[in-house]
From TrEMBL:
<protein>
    <recommendedName>
        <fullName>NADP-dependent oxidoreductase domain-containing protein</fullName>
    </recommendedName>
</protein>
<feature type="domain" description="NADP-dependent oxidoreductase">
    <location>
        <begin position="19"/>
        <end position="110"/>
    </location>
</feature>
<dbReference type="InterPro" id="IPR050791">
    <property type="entry name" value="Aldo-Keto_reductase"/>
</dbReference>
<dbReference type="GO" id="GO:0016491">
    <property type="term" value="F:oxidoreductase activity"/>
</dbReference>
<dbReference type="Pfam" id="PF00248">
    <property type="entry name" value="Aldo_ket_red"/>
</dbReference>
<dbReference type="GO" id="GO:0005737">
    <property type="term" value="C:cytoplasm"/>
</dbReference>
<dbReference type="InterPro" id="IPR023210">
    <property type="entry name" value="NADP_OxRdtase_dom"/>
</dbReference>
<keyword id="KW-0560">Oxidoreductase</keyword>
<dbReference type="InterPro" id="IPR036812">
    <property type="entry name" value="NAD(P)_OxRdtase_dom_sf"/>
</dbReference>
Length: 112
């Protein structure tokens, strides 16, 4: 099976897969066990996907990736992780706002 093509991030950045793996779908709604979701990460890496995308509003995606790399530390060296923050959603998912102030940026970075 053909591997995913790669691209360089920026002028001097790392080589990553041209297609990224978006982790939102594993973390919202009805979730499988962590081990089942880890198999999805394993398969993505096996196929050459080395760019994983997450965000602090994607359910437990950041925590799940942390657990995965703690359980399989050798995989961490193979993956570039991009995360996003700035959207704030109320617990009932009815109110959305945007924050970019220094305090929130620091908090989101620390939690990530």
């Amino acid at each position: 099976m053909a591997k995913v093509p790669t691209r360089q991030l920026g002028k001097n950045g790392p080589q990553v897969s041209a297609l990224g793996y978006g982790s939102m779908t594993l973390s919202l709604g009805n979730r499988a066990s962590d081990e089942e979701r880890f198999k999805v990460f394993d398969r993505a890496i096996e196929l050459g996907c080395t760019f994983f995308d997450t965000a602090n509003i994607y359910g437990d995606s950041e925590e799940l990736l942390g657990k995965y790399f703690k359980t399989y530390p050798e995989q961490r060296k193979k993956v570039f992780i991009a995360t996003k923050f700035g959207e704030v959603i109320s617990p009932d998912w009815k109110t959305f706002s945007v924050r970019g102030d220094a305090e929130y940026v620091h908090q989101a970075s620390e939690r990530s």
